From TrEMBL:
The lineage of its organism: Eukaryota, Metazoa, Chordata, Craniata, Vertebrata. Keywords: Disulfide bond, Glycoprotein, Heparin-binding, Repeat, Secreted, Sensory transduction, Signal, Wnt signaling pathway. It comes from Rhadina sibilatrix. Activator of the canonical Wnt signaling pathway by acting as a ligand for LGR4-6 receptors, which acts as a key regulator of angiogenesis. Upon binding to LGR4-6 (LGR4, LGR5 or LGR6), LGR4-6 associate with phosphorylated LRP6 and frizzled receptors that are activated by extracellular Wnt receptors, triggering the canonical Wnt signaling pathway to increase expression of target genes. Also regulates the canonical Wnt/beta-catenin-dependent pathway and non-canonical Wnt signaling by acting as an inhibitor of ZNRF3, an important regulator of the Wnt signaling pathway. This is R-spondin-3. GO terms for biological process: positive regulation of non-canonical Wnt signaling pathway; Wnt signaling pathway. GO terms for molecular function: heparin binding; signaling receptor binding. It comes from the Eukaryota. CDD domains: FU (cd00064). Belongs to the R-spondin family. SMART domains: FU, TSP1. Residues 175-219 have a biased composition (Basic and acidic residues).
Length: 243
């Protein structure tokens, strides 16, 4: 037993000393030495602090220091995060990334180089000049493509995403907006006029047919009835002369 061992330790210590702090820890806690000035004090923690990694043994769980360039590590030879100005690659902290990789200053890791990827060209647009497709002979047509994958810092840059070329069209006059509107209005009025004319003609036809029907009925009422023709067979009946 260590000299000056105290009873009733606090802070997760199983045994402790007034001078050296914790000497052993309760189950599942990690023992680590913290330097305070020229003196080291033992403490018991549920997990190891930054710059240390934990190792469990049958009799004690200990925190050991990572390598000098590691900020956090899984074991002494496998870093999970590097200190500033170092880049993490396969568990190691490097000042410069290997060939074929580039330094990512955001994650502080060595990552693969990503080149630009673009889609296929779109079809050519209609031939235009100053936003119009009429009133000219020579104009321009354009096509586009989209960026599918943006490149990384050392990746191949993206080429142009738009392309233009000269074009020739059959020259035609632009229809004036006011004139076109006037023509549409005239067509609408003419259509309404034709519909009204057809409606009037149908109304006149129905009125004429009704008038003819009424006239026939009046004529039938005023015409005298025809007398029934006498029966000739009765008129020619034989006369009885026996008396």
């Amino acid at each position: 037993v260590h000299p000056n061992v105290s009873q009733g330790c606090q802070g997760g210590c199983a045994t402790c000393s007034d001078y050296n702090g914790c000497l052993s820890c309760k189950p599942r806690l990690f023992f680590v030495l913290e330097r305070i000035g020229m003196k080291q004090i033992g403490v018991c923690l549920s997990s190891c602090p930054s710059g240390y990694y934990g190792t469990r043994y049958p009799d004690i769980n200990k925190c050991a220091k990572c390598k000098a360039d590691c900020d956090t590590c899984f074991t002494r030879n496998f870093c999970t995060k590097c200190k500033s100005e170092f880049y993490l690659y396969s568990g190691k902290c490097l000042e410069k990334c290997p060939d074929g990789l580039e330094a990512n200053n955001h994650t502080m890791e060595c990552t693969s180089i990503v080149h630009c990827e673009i889609s296929e060209w779109s079809p050519w647009s209609p031939c235009m000049k100053k936003g119009k497709t009429c009133g000219f002979k020579r104009g321009n047509e354009v096509r586009f493509r989209e960026i599918v994958q943006h490149p990384s810092a050392r990746g191949n840059p993206c080429p142009a995403t738009t392309e233009s070329r000269k074009c020739i069209v059959q020259r035609k006059r632009c229809q004036k907006e006011g004139k076109g509107k006037k023509n549409r209005e005239e067509k609408r009025k003419k259509s309404n006029k034709d519909e009204s004319k057809e409606t009037r003609q149908e109304s006149k036809g129905r009125a004429a047919r009704r008038q003819n029907r009424e006239q026939r009925e009046n004529n039938n009422k005023t015409q005298p009835k025809k007398r029934k023709a006498p029966n000739k067979e009765q008129d020619l009946a034989p006369v009885d002369t026996a008396h």
